[in-house]
Amino acid sequence: MLRTRVITAFALLFVLLGGLFYLPSLFWGCLTLGVIAIGSWEWGALARFPRPARWAYLMLTILWGTAFFVLNIRVEQIYLLAVVFWLLVAIPWFSWGWQVRNPVGLAATGWMVLFPTWFALMDLHAMRPALLLGLIAVVSVADIGAYFAGRAFGKHKLAPSVSPGKTWEGVAGGLLAVACYGALWKTFVATVGVPFPGFVLLLAMAALSVGGDLFESWLKRQAGLKDSGNMLPGHGGVLDRIDGMTPALPLAAAYYIYGFPGF
């Protein structure tokens, strides 16, 4: 199992780095739209749509995405709306154990999770691929730090009814890991032309990524699923890999569009 997980992780890293640095914006947009489309298929399972509805949701996602892409439609306010959604809807959703059954609401929620993430992947890539890589790494660093800190020191459960394995000590370890990562970025990476975005943004991304993970965990628990899918051997589904990015990357995009003059 560990071997399979490691092989898949290296394959994903290869695709990510190749796409980031060697694909032009057009093909990067197509690649990431494919990821979002797979995520929409998996979202249909989390929302417990019947199979015909899952196919319809997938096709609508592809059609909407293609229209946005071909017509070059950008609604910058979508990032602020996404941040508001995560803070005022998604986090209370799993914190208070909401049981949502309305298919229209669940479909709209899926698009609110997926489309801002896709727009952020394209807009941040257009700014600078290395910047996007550094921001994606924030989520991975937070996840790794939380895992090891939780295993070593975890005693106080973060959300036992949603994800019993997560602890407050793990969250603290993840934030500490991101702070160290930020120090390395500021000291070394910024000197080669990738400006340091600031500790506030990195720590806020790390904190929100926990919310993305817990939100998906709650939906999987409701749907009676262990993973969102089985496309990635050893890792589950696409949503299992990008759940932390879905709130973090729109936040980063909002920061750069509204709060980082001159970039």
Give a short overview:
This protein is mainly alpha-helical and 263 residues long. It is built from ten helices and two strands. Belongs to the CDS family.
Fold and architecture overview:
By secondary structure, this protein is mainly α. The protein has one domain (2-258). Helix content is 75%, strand content 3%. It has helices spanning 2-22, 25-46, 51-70, 77-95, 103-127, 129-153, 168-187, 199-223, 238-242, 245-258; strands spanning 157-159, 163-167. Strands 1-2 form a two-stranded antiparallel ribbon. A hairpin with a 3-residue loop joins β1 and β2. The longest helix is centred in the middle third of the chain and has 25 residues, at 103-127. The N and C termini lie far apart (43 Å). Belongs to the CDS family. Keywords: Cell membrane, Lipid biosynthesis, Lipid metabolism, Membrane, Nucleotidyltransferase, Phospholipid biosynthesis, Phospholipid metabolism, Transferase, Transmembrane, Transmembrane helix. It catalyses: a 1,2-diacyl-sn-glycero-3-phosphate + CTP + H(+) = a CDP-1,2-diacyl-sn-glycerol + diphosphate.
Descriptive key words:
single chain; 263 residues; mainly alpha; two-stranded antiparallel ribbon; 3% strand; globular
